[in-house]
């Protein structure tokens, strides 16, 4: 049985393992030291505009994403939702779990009054881009990032 629910502090280790389990994540994540992740979890968990979700199958964490609600002035004061850090455990890839997670995020965003759901994806993740487009996401903007540290 699959459930999608708010992550608990005890889920951080499993979430970080999924973040690190791909070529890009392996270069930037440090699953052997969870202290920074625990601190970040506590900040996320305390913020009512954040929802760190986990998908559980039979009690085991098999997927995750972070949903952020963004109030704004543009689009006549519209509220948007941003999806970040979508990950599916290697054992579950191809099972439809990614679609389930994003459908959950859409329902959650609508329930919070959001008029738009947006996400970014690294340019190197071509398979992910095709997946998002199949679900109705449009590559309508170019994203920019600047490292500060």
From TrEMBL:
<protein>
    <submittedName>
        <fullName>GNAT superfamily N-acetyltransferase</fullName>
    </submittedName>
</protein>
<dbReference type="InterPro" id="IPR050832">
    <property type="entry name" value="Bact_Acetyltransf"/>
</dbReference>
<dbReference type="GO" id="GO:0016747">
    <property type="term" value="F:acyltransferase activity, transferring groups other than amino-acyl groups"/>
</dbReference>
<dbReference type="Pfam" id="PF00583">
    <property type="entry name" value="Acetyltransf_1"/>
</dbReference>
<keyword id="KW-0012">Acyltransferase</keyword>
<keyword id="KW-0808">Transferase</keyword>
<dbReference type="InterPro" id="IPR000182">
    <property type="entry name" value="GNAT_dom"/>
</dbReference>
<dbReference type="InterPro" id="IPR016181">
    <property type="entry name" value="Acyl_CoA_acyltransferase"/>
</dbReference>
<feature type="domain" description="N-acetyltransferase">
    <location>
        <begin position="2"/>
        <end position="149"/>
    </location>
</feature>
